[in-house]
Amino acid sequence: MSELYMMATISDRNQTRRFLAFYKDYGITVTLLTLGRGTAASEVLDSFGLEATEKAILFAFLTGTQWRAVKTGLQRQIKIDIPGSGIAFILPMSSIGGKKQLQYLTEGREFQKGEESTLKDTVYELLVVIANEGYSEMIMDAARKENAPGGTIIHAKGTGTEKARKFLGFSIAVEKEMIFMVTRRESKNAIMKSIMDAAGLESEARAIVFSLPVTDTAGMRLIEEAEQG
After folding, report:
1. Average pLDDT, the chain
2. Whole-structure pTM value
3. Which has the closest alpha carbon to 135: 193, 189, 207?
4. Strand 31-37 vs strand 54-63: parallel, antiparallel, or unpaired?
5. How far is it, in rounded angstroms, from Cα 194 to Cα 140?
6. Is residue 48's pLDDT more than 80?
7. How far apart, in whole angstroms, are the C-alpha atoms of residue 81 and residue 41?
8. pLDDT of residue 35
């Protein structure tokens, strides 16, 4: 899906509403919000005019055409190029588990479906699962059935849940868990299917799963050796 991306925005927490309102003006209301803290060294913060503050991370989904308009708006309206305003970046999505899930994440927007992955030589992919809070073990159990490595779970809050009934046919909980798993590309489809079968939209978990190409890794050597052995 060469024209579909996940956009991440990192800003001070007190700017969250500003960014949410800005994205809503561009028709982007389905987002996930989680919290973090800046860790840059003081000399780096000083050089960019930043402070070591509590951060908000917003995840949203948009097309390539939409990103070009959003990027221009971020530069002109948010003044994002001024140090301390925040950063935004996009990651190409390679696949999404299910048509309804795709319609929900894109809010029904049209996009040009490209080939399976825009990065041809990637060995690994990042699987991202968005599910109702409290079902991470169900999801990980399903993933392990297809020999998935461990995952990382973070808490998030969903926005734009009013769109869910339109595209999914039911309401979804605001409190979410996001699960990140790095897996080999050839294992991706089996793991995604196992998750969808066990914890998909027909279950209480209401899981949505998609993948992002990973260009390189470090720290995966033992997993690779175990697979080869």
Report:
1. 80
2. 0.73
3. 207
4. antiparallel
5. 10
6. no
7. 20
8. 85
CA-based nearest residue to 145, from 184, 191, 87: 191
Which CATH number does 4-92 carry? 3.30.70.120
User: What's the rounded Cα separation, in Å, for the pair 51 and 42?
Assistant: 8
Domain boundaries, the chain: 4-92, 122-228
Three-state DSSP state, 219:
coil
Distance CA 97, CA 226 (A): 27
- Residues 124 and 185: beta-carbon distance below 8 Å: yes
87 in Cβ contact with 13 (< 8 Å): no
CATH fold group of domain 122-228: Alpha-Beta Plaits (3.30.70)
DSSP string of the chain, one letter each residue: -TTEEEEEEEEEGGGHHHHHHHHHHTT---EEEEEEE----HHHHHHHT----EEEEEEEEEEHHHHHHHHHHIIIII-TTSTTS-EEEEEE--EES-HHHHHHHHTT-------S-S-TT-SEEEEEEEEETT-HHHHHHHHHTTT----EEEEEEEE-THHHHHHHSS---SEEEEEEEEEEHHHHHHHHHHHHHHHSTTSSS--EEEEEEE---SS-HHHHHHHH-
Apex 13 CA angle, 7 and 18, nearest 5: 65
pLDDT band at 103 (very low <50, low <70, confident <90, very high): confident
